[in-house]
């Protein structure tokens, strides 16, 4: 199993793109197993209607809350959301799986982005109630919501799973501005074959401070790095080889479905650990 990891930053100094290659091919954190029974389900009233939070509490020494919203085509049963809810609590992270009001109401079609953002703002007080820093995250449309609202809500960071950089086949309809405008440290985890944006389509190079490097990886500086002008926080992108928009991998791929999900959970665990050690200070 292998994965590529590109570091990108947008700040004040020009840096080279760094490609990271995993040293050990065996899963190094935990395999993504079935989610244990959640201890609490909470309904939260928002201006967009009732939302629902399924809490997966940290099993020891809680230090962060990771809030994860779903996409426009599914709910919190998505394989990556379930995998993170199964693994992260063992690492001191409480996972909150958030269902938007339209899903709670049984509707088939997601509302406009502004309505999704309105609901996310409405559930935020419940997410901060434990008194811990909150990482705002989600997959697909949920990742866009997290990016758009992170700065105003005071999110600790953003986790963007399968960020929909553009509609399939419409690269000219780029949503890169939402990602680059997140205003907090951001991790993007993207399938190598995601029709909503392959890793190579994302802004390639950046400027700014280096972030903490996860353990078990080697750094290799690329040549011919370009500079990108930007004032936002640093962001990182990890590619899940062969993964589609749901991180599904074909049977002929050189990694299994379980291994692909382990890439997702491994890198998030390490990123969360590094984030705690190397959280950048406020912009000045």
Task: Give a verbal description of the structure.
This protein has 284 residues and is an alpha/beta fold. It has a single domain, classed as 3-Layer(aba) Sandwich (Rossmann fold), CATH 3.40.50.1820. The protein is 24% helix and 23% strand. It is built from 6 helices and 11 strands. It has an 11-stranded mixed β-sheet with strand order 3-4-6-5-7-8-9-11-1-2-10, with helices on both faces. A hairpin with a 2-residue loop joins strand 3 (40-46) and strand 4 (49-56). Helix 3 packs across helix 4. The chain is globular. Mean pLDDT is 79; it is low at 1-35, 205-232 and 280-284.
Instruction: Give the class-level CATH name.
Output: Alpha Beta
Specify the overall morphology.
Answer: globular
What structural class should be given to the helix and strand makeup?
A: alpha/beta
**CATH homology-level superfamily:** Alpha/Beta hydrolase fold, catalytic domain
* Major pleated sheet: 11 strands, mixed
- For this structure, the quaternary state is single chain
As a whole number of angstroms, the C-alpha radius of gyration is 18 Å
* Beta-strand residue fraction: 15-25%
Helix amount, in percent?
10-25%
Layout of helices and strands, plus pairs?
Layout: E1 4-8, E2 18-22, E3 40-46, E4 49-56, E5 64-69, H1 79-87, E6 93-99, H2 101-104, H3 113-128, E7 134-139, H4 141-153, E8 157-161, H5 176-180, E9 186-191, E10 217-221, E11 235-240, H6 257-278
Could you give a short description of this structure?
The chain is of the alpha/beta class. 24% of the residues lie in helices and 23% in strands.
């Amino acid at each position: 199993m292998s994965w590529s990891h590109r570091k990108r930053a947008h700040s004040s100094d020009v840096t080279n793109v760094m490609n990271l290659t995993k040293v050990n091919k065996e899963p190094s954190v935990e395999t993504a197993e079935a989610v244990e029974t959640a201890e609490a389900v909470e309904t939260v009233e928002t201006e967009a209607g009732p939302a629902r939070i399924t809490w997966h509490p940290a099993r020891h020494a809680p230090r962060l809350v990771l809030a994860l919203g779903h996409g426009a085509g599914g709910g919190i049963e998505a394989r990556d959301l379930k995998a993170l809810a199964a693994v992260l609590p063992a690492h001191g992270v409480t996972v909150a799986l958030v269902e938007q009001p339209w899903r709670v109401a049984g509707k088939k079609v997601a509302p406009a982005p502004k309505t999704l953002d309105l609901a996310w703002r409405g559930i935020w007080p419940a997410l901060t109630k434990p008194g811990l820093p909150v990482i705002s995250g989600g997959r697909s449309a949920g990742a866009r919501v997290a990016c758009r609202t992170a700065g105003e809500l005071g999110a600790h960071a953003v986790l963007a799973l399968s960020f929909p950089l553009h509609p399939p086949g419409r690269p000219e309809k780029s949503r890169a501005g939402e990602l680059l405008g997140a205003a907090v440290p951001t991790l993007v985890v993207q399938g190598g074959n995601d029709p909503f944006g392959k890793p190579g389509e994302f802004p390639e190079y950046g400027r700014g401070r280096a972030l903490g490097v996860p353990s078990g990886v080697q750094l290799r500086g690329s040549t011919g790095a370009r500079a990108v002008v930007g004032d936002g926080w640093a962001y990182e992108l990890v590619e899940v080889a062969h993964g589609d928009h749901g991180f599904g991998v074909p049977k002929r791929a050189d990694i299994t479905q379980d291994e692909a999900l382990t890439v997702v959970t491994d890198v998030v665990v390490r990123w969360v650990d590094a984030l705690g050690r190397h959280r950048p200070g406020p912009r000045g």
